Amino acid sequence: MDDLESLADDIRRADTVVALTGAGISAPSGVPTFRGDDGIWDRFDEGQFAYGRLQRDPAGFWDDRVALQQELFGDDPEPNAAHNALAAMGRAGTLEAICTQNTDGLHGAAADTVVAGAGDDSDDDTTILELHGNAQRVRCQDCGHRRDSEPIIERAAAGDLPPTCDCGGVFKPDVVLFGEQLPGAAIQRARSLARESDVFLAVGSSLSVQPAASLPRLAAETGATVGVVNLESTPCDSLADVVYREDVTTVLPRLRELVTE
Length: 261
Ligand SMILES: [Zn+2]
Prior knowledge:
Bound molecules: zinc ion
Strand content: 15-25%
CATH architecture of the largest domain: 3-Layer(aba) Sandwich
Largest sheet: 6 strands, parallel
Number of domains: 2
CATH topology of the largest domain: Rossmann fold
Order of helices and strands: HEHHHHHEHEEEHEHEHEEH
Mean pLDDT: 92
Radius of gyration: 19 Å
CATH superfamily of the largest domain: TPP-binding domain
Shape: elongated
């Protein structure tokens, strides 16, 4: 039995399986990464996207944000084989939750695609915890109303700066900006899920940024089998039971096949 078969075996026996995903799962969909060689922050000044600037200079913030969103999502990225494999495991009732560091909304898109193809069976829906928010939405800073970001970005691109809600409030990308706290409730829930998990999969995350970095450790401390799939080494490799230094779009579909066959 190879490592992947043994991991699949653990997943089949587990009550609670939790996945954590990072930029590496969306890179094959063409979403550029923020850090690293040729990352977004090599080309954009991250200070211009801080919460404080949105308060001080909302028009300037949104002018720059339009360019950033176009760089991130201009090619209309779609879920890839790794997103789809996790969504399929969710549909099969195998995956309790996905905690993601990504703001691209691709896990939600993958889940919707699977639902559309498989009829209504919402009991098995996987919880998707977006720890840093979702850039495909905006939120009114005054009334809290959320909307799809696409028409708002189009308005801003056409010179309607800053884009505002019907109530007059200025929209904010529904993501955690620099200078903002991460959403406490989501972080707490992610920690609980990590502790409850029997199998914890870290997929496409460098595991170098908190709070994501602490989740595999919490899972390991409470006895979970920990699997890491990432192209580069991570600080959690030494505590993991299984480490795959391979492309997520290769490993995840193979794992899903083994689990659901
Ligand atoms: Zn409003």
